[in-house]
Amino acid sequence: MSFCNQRDFDAEYGRRYERIKDDKKDDAEQTSVLGQMLQFVPFVKTIVEYKTSYLTGDLIAGFTVTALNVPQGMAFAALAGLPPVIGIYMGFFAPLIYFFFGTSHHLSVGGFAPISMMVVASISTISQQIKDEEMENLHNSTLSNVTDSLGSDDQLKIAVGSSIGLVSGIILTILGFMRLGFIGSYFSNSLIKGFTFGVAIQIATTQVVKVLGIVIPGHSGAGSLLFSWLEIFKHIGHTNLCSLIIGVITCLLLCLSQFLSDRYKTQLKGFPIPAELSLVAVGTMISHLARLHEHFHVQVIGDVPAGVPLPNLDPITTLLNHPSSIGPVFQIAVPAALVSYAISLAMAKLLAQKNGYAIENNQELFALGLVDSISAFFGCFTSAASPPRSNLQSEVGGKTGLTSIFSCVLMLAVMIFAGPLMTSLPFSVLGVIVIFALRAFFIQARELPKLFRQDKTDFSVWVITALMTVSTDLTYGLLSGIALSLVSVLWRSQNPNVSELGQIRGTDKYRDVSSYQKIDNIPNAMIIRFGMSLYFANSELFISKVKKEISDRSKSDGNPELNYVILDGGPFNFVDHSGAAALSALIQHCRLANIKFILVISDLNVLEKLERENLVETMGSENIFPSVHDATLSIQLAAGRENKGKMKNEKFPLLSNQK
């Protein structure tokens, strides 16, 4: 039976006091111009490593994604209160820019319903504020035309939306330069799911209005959802029956197509039925031939300009000419940027894991920031990865980012040739397409009973975030979810599990004594495990709980005298100055009680921190061990020496008195 303490462990195995950094990569790749370019523009690597066997899958995926992107993009732009053609612009510029800078092979970046819902109220409010300001100043808006065929109200809303997109892009780009890609980790799954569920309810409410063909006053702020539904019921008698019938038929056909896609998935080889695009085409044709707008007052999307938009400076001139709009724009641009990044990063990680490649968080910040910053000059607002389209791109065989290029070619054809053909498309068709696309977010609620059983804290984050999003607005819902997630992290770190460990009989494993039957306590010793890093937020709790454990053990009947306390510091990822002070206080407490204090440290960074705090010198390096088993062996050998008066094997020094 032999053991070694940390001092002898370091000597035996050659501890490096100036360690080799483990984050070094290939020096040539890090320092060469080519290596830096490959990191900033990943498309170069995609082109160099492209295989002809990928071409068929990328072409098919590009066509399939475009078939979904056209109707969804138009619907999401309309959802943001903008002309539907903006959704087509976003479906072209966003994936085109992302291809050059993004690291995911499967993200379909463009319009996304939650982002549209986040910005719609702000676009309307800021636009009205600018109009009121112009009226007060008695001069017309100086905004340049985005397209010649859009009315002045649409021009103003597009300019405001693109300003939000520009600011969002700048924020993400700055975060990328600061290498803050890790912030996406603070958006927990519970937060994202609760938020998107609340957003889905808000979105569905706005689309019900379009399906019914009614007009209701807009509401924003706390209780806006409730007021909207009250207005819907108040105006239900003015429902446009033709619009409602179109919506019901569209819904039934979408459900049928989904059923057939699921039923004959094997025969279709994973290819979905392009129901949305087909319904847009058929709905437009029937509406045009039957002249539904003229005869039945069905709301249609109206003129859709053809061609590629020219870049303009509206995002900048809007902010410069109307400084009062800067604050409100920032107020919505910040959460929109964070949600865009969080959702896009989560989807990118999921697809990367599924398809066996890696993504780079900071590069994703750069990519999304450049997408928003550049596309804003073409009238686009904040973009994000669409989970349905991204997953579809992976499912139908897309292999590389070139899928986005093929999709952009098709979107370009739509912009040039198909735009004017969709003038008669009923809004009720787009409304049902949006609601149908949200079904995955509603289905998330089925996870709540299981989540409640598994983790009540995550359940609370999910439910409260959803309720706040529904009862107030999207910005406050998101901020409350973030705050609650951070509070839950702090609460967990301040309330770690403190347990007494014992040795599993016949092994060198140590577990909680209350969890196993075949477990033995170490005579005259107590092993305590503090299940969290030790820092200022939990240092006082650490002292009180460990002291209580020692006191309870000392006072309990039938246990031998307590001579040793072993603290298992394996869970310590870091220890700050306050944590080191807490350890020092605990050492002093044990010394006054005539108890030897032994520390187990497995993380060398933590050990180096304790050395800088002079704790190693205080307690003696011979009383620090690399494992719990080494520490218990030292006690057993020390006890054996006391009993026998002599030890034959003294390769390593026995536990000595602490200084």
Look at the structure and give the mean pLDDT.
82
Largest sheet: 7 strands, mixed
Distance from first to last alpha carbon: 27 Å
Low-confidence stretches: 22-31, 139-151, 645-659
Number of helices: 29
**What share of residues are in beta strands?**
5-15%
Q: Give the proportion of residues in helices.
A: 55-70%
Explain what this protein looks like in three dimensions.
The chain is mostly helical and 659 residues long. The two termini are 27 Å apart. The protein has helices at residues 6-13, 27-31, 33-40, 43-48, 55-79, 85-101, 113-137, 152-177, 189-212, 224-234, 241-263, 265-268, 275-290, 292-296, 314-321, 326-355, 361-375, 387-395, 402-418, 427-437, 439-443, 448-454, 456-471, 474-494, 539-555, 577-592, 604-612, 615-619, 628-644; strands at residues 109-110, 384-385, 498-504, 510-512, 519-520, 525-530, 564-568, 596-600, 624-625. Mean pLDDT is 82; it is low at 22-31, 139-151 and 645-659.
Short overview:
The chain is mostly helical and 659 residues long. It is built from 29 helices and nine strands.
